[in-house]
Amino acid sequence: MNATLKHLIYRQILDDLGSRTCARLSLEDRYKMQRLLAKTMTQESVIFAAKELPLYFSRLYRVNGYAERSFSTFLAVSHSGVRFVTRESVEDELTTTSHLKYNDIIEVKAVNEKVTLDTPDRKIVLHTVKAASIKKLIDVYMKAAEKQEKYVKALGDYVAPNQDHLSFKKGTIIKVYNKKDIEVGMLWGTNGDYRGKFPITLVKDYERVQGENFKVTAEKNLTNKKGGTTSESEPYSMMEFAMRYYSLPEISEAGKLTTLRKNLSVNDDESMWNYINSLVVFGREPLSGSLINFNNKSLSRQAADINKAIMKFMGDLKRDRQETNNELIAMVLRNGIENLDMRDEIYCQLAKQTTNNKSENSESCGRGWKLLMLCTAYFDCSELLRPFLNKFFHSASASSNEFSSAASACELNLSRSFKYGGRKQLPSENELFMFMQGKNSKHQIVELPGGIQKLCKVQTSTTAYDLVKDICQEMGLYSEQEHEEYGVYVFFQEQKLLVPMQDTDYVFDTFAQIEKENLAFTVAFRKVIWYHTMRFANNLFTEVIYNQIVPDVYNGNIIHFKGNRTSHIRDQQTQNEIALLAALQHRISNKHISPTEEDILSLIPPLISNLLTSMQWLHIVDDHFRLIKHFTVSNARTKYLELISAWVYFGSSFFYIQNCEHPAVDGDGILAINKNGVHILSRYTRDTLLSFSYSEIISTRHLRTDSGRLFVDLKTGNLMVQRVTRLETPRGKEISNMIARYVRCISLDNNKEKD
Hints:
Layout (H helix, E strand, L loop, with lengths): L2 H17 L7 H13 L3 H10 L6 E4 L9 E7 L2 E7 L7 E6 L6 E5 L2 E5 L4 E5 L3 H14 L5 E5 L18 E5 L8 E6 L2 E6 L3 E3 H9 L6 E4 L3 E4 L6 H8 L12 H7 L4 H10 L18 H18 L10 H14 L1 H14 L10 H15 L7 H13 L5 H17 L8 H8 L4 E8 L3 E8 L4 H11 L5 H4 L2 E7 L4 E4 L6 H11 L3 E7 L11 H16 L12 H22 L8 H7 L2 H4 L4 H15 L4 H12 L8 E8 L6 E8 L2 E5 L6 E5 L4 E8 L5 E8 L4 E7 L3 H23 L1
C-alpha cells in the first residue's frame, strides 16, 4: 500500500469515527477505535484495527430470502468472511446474525437475480439484483483464502454406508470443511462433486504427507554455523514455510513430486529435501527472483534487487563504486516500510542468509543479524509468516552462539512493531554509525521535575511508553493504569517549547527528525493527567510530584477561594494554608532554622502576597515552622502533598490562553484541565469564569490561520444544541491530547461499572 492510499484510508476512518453516521460502525466499534486513538496516532495501527472490525471494510448488499424478516437483511462481504446483518429501522445499528468464513463455503453460484452459497451444513439461496457482483467478490476472497484450506490424504479405500458418507479410494486428496454437529471421530469433506463425512482414522493430514515425501530416513537438522541449530522436524520451521509458500514446481494431485523430480532430474527423496533445504540456508549467488511465490514479475524483480542489496551489505557481493552502508540499509528499509508485499520476502531472505552461513567474509553473518535487528524495528510481517519467524528468532536466541542476543533483540523489536506499527523515520547518520559499531542502544538523560536526571537505556525499537514505564517503575508504579497518567516530552531549548511525545512514538524516530533540523533539545518526564487516587509509592515518587506541583502553587494557579464564606473569613483560611505550605517548603529545602523576611518572598505566591505585609507573613509562617521543623524532608513533602491534594484545582494542568471567544471570558485567561472537566480561570484573580464537564465536550480541533495564529476549538453541548468555544494558544495539540486521555479514563471506568 503506497503512502498516499494509506493516508486516504486513515483519514476516511477518522472522518467516519467523527461523523456518527457510518452504518458499518457500532457503538462498541467506535469505543474500541477511540481507545486506540487515545493511545496511538500511527496510521498503520489504526488501519489494522479497523480491519479487525466486523463490518467496517465490508461491501453491503440488500438481499431477500435468508430468513422471513419484517425488516431489512443485508449480506456483508469483506476480507474476514460473509456476514448476514439486519436492522429494524434506519436509526438502529446493523446486527450480525451469522458469519461464514471463506473456508466454510464450498461454492458460490449466481443465476439471474439469485445467488447460492453452498456450505457443509446447507445451501443458502438469496435473491438480489447484485447476484453476479456478489459471486465475483466472494470468488476473489475465496481464492485468497486457499492457503488456509485443509486437505487430508486417504490411507485406504472407503465405501460409504449411506448417502451422508463420502466414498474414496486410497491416495485420494479430500478437502476438509468445518461442519456443525459432526460426530466425534468423523470429518466432513469434498472430493470433486462428491461430499460427505468419513472416519478420521482412514486419512492423514496432507501437509504432513508432503513433508514426509521430502524427508530422508535419518532425521535432518539444519545446523547454523553461527546462528544456532534448528530442528526442521519441529513445527513452524522455515523449511515448512518454504514447502508451503516458496516458488516451487507444482505437486501432483496424489502428493507425489513427479513434476519436481522431472525438473531437477533426480529420483530420490534425499535430493528433494536438499533442494528445499537450499532455499532456506546461506547462498553465495544472488537470487534471480523472489523466494515467495508472488505470481508477479514486477515483485519478483524487486525481490531480486533487494537480495543484491542484502548481499552487498553483508559483504557477499561486490558493491557498485559509490554504494555505502547507509544507502544499502535505506534501500532495504524503504522497501519494507512502503511495500507490504515485500516484508515477508525481506525476512525470508535474511533468515536464509543467516542460516548455516558459510561465507568467506567473517563479518557476513553478523551484518545479516544487524540488518534483521533494524528491519524488525521498522516493520512487521504477515500473520502467515509470524509464527515461523518467531520460531526462527526463538531458536537462535536459545542457542549459545554469538548472535543469541541479536536474536532476542529481534524478537523484542518485532513484537513492538506488531503493537505500535514500526518506526517511520530512516535511521540518522549518528544512529547508523553507532549501530555499525555494534551498539544498538544509547543512554539518554531524561529530566524529571525539579532538575532530577535519570539515565535511560534507549534501544532501536524503544517507544515513548517504554521510557515512561521504566521511570514509573523506579517511582514504585507498576500498573499500566498508573503508567498511562505520565508522559515524556521534547523540550526545544531555543524556542522554549515543550512538545509531547505520543506513547507509540519511537524515540530514535524523534531523535532522527530533530537531528535533521539541527535543534538543541532535552527529554523531559512529567505527570500528564491526575485521574486515579494518588498513592505515595516511594521517595522518588513524592519528590517528583512535589517538584511538579510547587511552581503551580507559587504562580497562584492552584489557589482557589472556597465556598460562599465572606471574603475576610476565606482570606484567613487561605492565608493559614498558604503559610503552612510555605513552612513545609522551607523545611523541604533542608532548612532547620526559621525563615527570614527574604525567604518569604520566594515562599508566598505573589497573587496573594499583598493580603499581608511581609512581616505578618513571616510571623504566621514561623509559627507553623516551629511545629514541623522536626519533620524529615521526606515527611514534609508527603505532608505538603496531602494538604494541597484537598484543593479544588490540585491535579490540574494549566495553559495560558491569549484569547477566549466566549461571553463569560473577557480576553485572555488560564485554562485548567483536570478530572472534573475543562475550566477557564481569570488570569488576575484565578476565579472560575467558565467550566465544561467531559459529558458536555463533543470534540476538540486545533488549527492554524493563514497569519500563523494557533487555536483550539472546543465543541460542547448535546445532539440538539452545540457551541464552539475558540481558544487562542500555541499548545492546542497538547490540550486536545490531554482531554482525550481524561475522556478515555472516564469511558473505561463507565464500562467497568457496566460489567
